[in-house]
Write a structure and sequence with these properties.
single chain, about 200 residues, alpha+beta, five-stranded antiparallel β-sheet, two-stranded antiparallel ribbon, 9 strands, about 20% strand, disordered N terminus, disordered C terminus
Length: about 200
Amino acid sequence: MTSDNSQRARRPIESAPGVLVHPTADRQLAAEHWLLSTHPRPRQARADWDQHGVALLPLGTLFSAVRIPGALIQAVADTTDADEVDAFLKEALADGPVICNARHLRYYALVPGSMPLTWRQAADDWRVQDVDCLGRGCYLGVPPLNPSKARHEADSYWSVPMPSPAMLCRPLTVARLIAAGAYQLLAEGAEPGKPRIVEP
């Protein structure tokens, strides 16, 4: 049996008449349920989170992903420091969710499921930058929003966590980020797939 205090803690907070503010934990739990709903067996995906720290979720329905090489992101962020890159992406993509594969230094911006089709021409052009728009037929390793490991200790982590269910990166904002990174790499004479070296 729960106390009145614990029941009050779980209720949305009314910040002004008619405006409800849901606690962060509730929004995080709702976002996890939304992500897992893409899997044919959500319970299996949650078990994968618990056992492996990542679940393979199918793309192209509720969301797709734009894979961007770390060198391109680091070029536009003008830093190789992971925390600084994360802070840059949070601002540049207006809190749009991004997953980082730290082992291969790739970033995955989560976008609407239709983007691979509606942005097909742009996606074809981006391949020269080692950028790919992943949709139907692809799976993405998605970490839990509340991981057991510290962010930078995991192979895959949320560079920018999903703030609420269905809150995704805007395709135009992602396209502008890619264009800015490609321009910066061209100016530096660097290659998108190669690690970026910043002079001390």
